[in-house]
Write a structure and sequence with these properties.
Elements: H1 3-13, E1 56-59, H2 86-98, E2 104-108, H3 115-132, E3 138-142, H4 149-158, E4 161-163, H5 171-177, H6 183-206, E5 218-224, H7 231-245, E6 249-254, H8 273-288, H9 293-296, H10 310-317, E7 324-325, H11 331-334, H12 342-351, H13 359-364, H14 369-372, E8 376-377, H15 391-402, H16 423-431
Parallel strand pairs: 1-2, 2-3, 3-4, 4-5, 5-6, 7-8
Helix pairs in contact: 2-3, 3-4, 4-6, 7-8, 10-15
Length: 434
């Protein structure tokens, strides 16, 4: 099998892994080296389903030894198999970089033989890029659960960011759908990466020449919709991961039914893209808005309202917290108002030192008054008054204002290709004829 055929198979197999953002690294170019990982040196492009396409996102291999029920690459599934040689993939990455097709590499893999051998293959790719090609661009690599700690450590000194996929939201689901994986095998490398980042940060203060260990931090991904866990369970797990493992991001991947099994949704089940979107919105509230998982969802409301974003839904269900006087409220209180984000809340704090704010002034500061107007006062006055105590009325108004004309129509996910659509054109790209 030639390189172009492997590329077609393994880039297509990698499209279901969404944990590939490249934020958090600020390493400039060095004379005599290739690439740069500063913020301005990495272009971010996103497909309609939120997947990052600025990197060469590829699997080392899809010839998996595991039999995870939900996975298209499981060993019992009939699909085309391919495996890159380390030199082959490293050369390919540099060729694409030199032609300005990519700014970095996102490398994951199925388990080839065993976790240790798989890590050794990926480690060889990174070693060739960093040491032989002197490539200084961004590299995100997946840690393989169950691999030796020494291999994980060596990967961390070559990569900018590492991630270990937690895959499923509960241990029960993991045992049912991925019996060859265990909770301990996933959390052990996450703990090692967390501790390595902390130790390395301390060493860098003492010794500036110390090698950097995963400077972009670590992330993880979980599949949404393949198992029956509630949104509240998923959000609680997310909150725990942020607190215990200091993750940069938790990514959510709406399950796309591709495999028929009695433990999985039917093949004609639509991917829960709106649910994925609500989880990302709630994730933002956890990280930047001071919310906790127990505030966003509770036992009486274990799942998100599909018609309202989580912040707006929380505000509707807690009328005792409003209205908020924008000229006096603290920053933390402003952040809980629908229509006021982190940037606009900071602008309000700066602006009110000089003047008393009114609604026209708030609009200029970026506040979305069609939502915030129901929850705030300016100098004791409200812009919108609703003659009812029923939160369902307010919910209906906010829902109607938030939906685009014609209602919500989710798009089916698709992978945006980095390469030419035909084999002939692809060969021309690689040989420099295009």
């Amino acid at each position: 099998m030639d390189t172009m055929e492997k590329l077609r198979i393994l880039t297509d197999a990698a499209k279901y892994d969404v944990a590939c953002t490249s934020s958090g690294v600020d390493r400039g170019g060095v004379r005599g080296q290739l690439g740069s990982a500063v913020a301005a040196g990495i272009c971010h492009s996103f497909a309609s389903d939120g997947r990052c396409i600025s990197l060469l996102k590829v699997l080392m291999s899809n010839a998996c030894a595991y039999d995870c029920t939900y996975c298209l690459n499981r060993c019992t599934n009939e699909t085309e198999r391919a495996t890159f040689l380390p030199r082959e993939l490293a050369d390919l990455t540099i060729q694409f970089y030199r032609r300005n097709y990519i700014e970095g590499l996102f490398l994951s893999s199925a388990v080839v033989g065993n976790p240790d051998y798989t890590c050794e293959l990926m480690l060889s790719v990174l070693r060739i890029l960093r040491e032989e090609y002197r490539f200084g661009g961004y590299i995100h690599v997946k840690g393989i659960p169950g691999a030796d700690e020494r291999l994980i450590q060596r990967l961390g000194f070559y990569a900018d960011r590492m991630s270990v996929n937690i895959e499923l939201p509960s241990n029960v689901s993991l045992q049912r759908l991925a019996p060859q994986k265990t909770k301990e095998s996933i959390l052990t490398p996450m703990t090692q990466i967390r501790d390595g980042i902390r130790e390395n940060s301390t060493d860098l203060v003492k010794y500036r020449s110390a090698p950097r260990f995963v400077p972009g931090g670590q992330s993880t991904q979980m599949i949404i919709g393949a198992t029956p866990e509630s949104d509240r369970r998923i959000l609680q797990l997310t909150e725990g991961l942020y607190k215990k493992y200091a993750l940069k991001r938790v990514f959510y991947s709406a399950y796309i039914p591709l495999v028929q099994d009695r433990n999985l949704p039917a093949l004609d089940t639509a991917p829960p893209l709106l649910r994925e979107h609500r989880l990302y919105q709630a994730d933002w509230l956890l990280r930047f808005y001071g919310f906790t998982a127990s505030e966003i969802l509770d036992d009486d409301h274990p799942d998100f309202n599909p018609l309202l974003d989580p912040k707006c839904n929380w505000a509707v269900n807690h009328p005792e917290e409003f209205p908020v006087e924008v000229n006096r409220a603290p920053y933390e209180k402003l952040l809980r108002v629908p229509g006021i984000g982190v940037t606009s809340a900071r602008r309000i704090l700066r602006a009110r030192r000089e003047t008393k704010l009114d609604f026209d002034g708030l609009k200029k500061l970026g506040v979305v008054l069609k939502r915030a107007g129901y929850f705030i006062t300016c100098q004791g006055k409200m812009q919108c008054r609703i003659q009812t105590d029923d939160p369902l009325v307010l919910m209906g108004i906010l829902r109607d204002r938030g939906l685009p004309q014609g209602g919500f129509q989710p798009e089916m996910p698709e992978q945006l290709s980095l390469f030419a659509p035909t084999r002939e054109d692809g060969v021309k790209c690689l040989t420099g004829q295009l």
